[in-house]
Amino acid sequence: MEIYCDNAATTALDPEVIEAILPFFAASFGNPSSTHWAGRKVKDAIEDSRKLVAKVLNASAEEIYFTSGATEAINLAISGAIAKYDISHVVTSKIEHKAVLQTILQHEKSGDIETSFVQLDERGNVDLYHLENLLRANPQTLICLMHGNNEIGNLTDIHAISKLAQRYDSIFFTDTTQTIGKQWIDLTQTPIDFLVGSAHKFHGPKGAGFIYINKKHRIHAQIFGGGQEKGQRGGTENVTGIVGLAKALEVAYRDLDSNHSVVSKLKQYMVSKLAISGVYGICYNGESHSLENSLVNILNVSFPCLAAGSLVKSLDNLGIAVSGGSACSSQGSSHVISALPCQKDKENVRFSFSKFNTFDEIDHIVQAVVNIYNADPASRGQSRFRLELTH
């Protein structure tokens, strides 16, 4: 039995998305920069997609630019803003995605900027008081703080940060890669300068993403070419990817409330089953066990180290796909876990769910975990799970 529970890494294509993009592999093959009928046909599809993305965010179509994914969009936001506005100070956190941290690091190495890291509490939440102190001391700062953490699921109060950015004449970029399609974001209510999304995180195709650039900005391009995307991103557009992104986003927001309900129940169910599993020493990283303070699709669990091997690898051998980092071996924990004050001496496993997961799959995963610990020499006597799992 194969179970996919790594949806924070990527998601399966939605059947409606497959249906939407198929024509663009065959009949609708024109170059959108061409002025003849074949080009106009796909150009119209791109512009319709742009309008759809703008609509779900309550933005205007002229503020949406398509990219190859979130990583490119992140680089464009950070590097483009630094170059355009001669930014000398950036505020971020130590648990941002590496695409954010590495981009900032490169500018720091080049001497372009100085970086301040906002303090986090023991669960990885941003200290808004410390953030305000940093901004008070360094107005006109570029703030780079993510909306939803990709490893521990923590949700950041981007509305409060937006207000601070306005108060201290700063630019606010938020990485919304994990929250687009899962959280309502209304840009008329929460003014943000830049945010990004990637189609494959919400059941769209890989290789397609977007950046929202508030219309008051015109930042420096990072990829030059034929002037596509209004000069912000050169290169022939990935038409199938863009159409798939828009369709996936449409489906995600159409079904957002029902998907949220389904996935939150899966998360609650797994927490409840782990609680009675008998596996000794289980705890949760960040806010991932909370339905209010974290993304409902992410559950990051700290397990005791196995005597031999990795729990993630053992689950993989049983056909269960999850991800994580282990302080039990030389590979070490992730930079996110390492930034938190506890649970560094355990194996940290991220289970991330989607609308395609089931309660039966959760039963199978928990039973597999129990069986692995029952078979582990260091864990015998600590895990005695013999209950029938039902939902």
Describe the structure.
The longest helix has 21 residues, at 37-57. The two termini are 19 Å apart. The chain is α/β, with parallel strands linked by helices and 391 residues long. It has helices at 15-21, 37-57, 70-85, 98-109, 128-137, 158-167, 239-254, 256-275, 311-317, 335-338, 359-375; strands spanning 3-4, 64-67, 89-92, 114-117, 142-144, 171-175, 194-198, 209-213, 283-284, 298-303, 320-321, 323-326, 347-352. Mean pLDDT is 92; it is low at 383-391. It is globular, with a radius of gyration of 22 Å. Residues 3-364 form the Aminotransferase class V domain.
Any descriptors?
disordered C terminus, 11 helices, 7-stranded mixed sheet, single chain, pyridoxal phosphate, 4-stranded antiparallel sheet, alpha/beta, 391 residues
